Amino acid sequence: MFRLVQRHVEQTCRRERRIANRCVLGFVDAPQPVTAPGAGNPDLVLAEAVVSDAITQTQANLLADVHLVHVTQQDAARRRGWTRYGFRRELSRARRAVTTFLREDYVRQAA
Fold it and tell me: pTM score, two decimals?
């Protein structure tokens, strides 16, 4: 997951550098940043939630496997040596925690 985040950050930096170079050369007007609260790359949102202690690294990996990589819950549970019930319970906790984190982040940015 770290490598995915690192790659995304590098791509973002390169894109912003290209935009800045075009602005300096006078090709386009300076871009206005447009970001909606809670918007962004899902990997970065999960990484931010882990850094802010909203979820654990394990929970972030569960969410990434099921929602981003599209691994079935049964296969993901089997890989970890968990029961399906235990996996679903932990996945449910992770979903609730990320939802709460995003809602609080939205309120912070809106204020």
Answer: 0.62
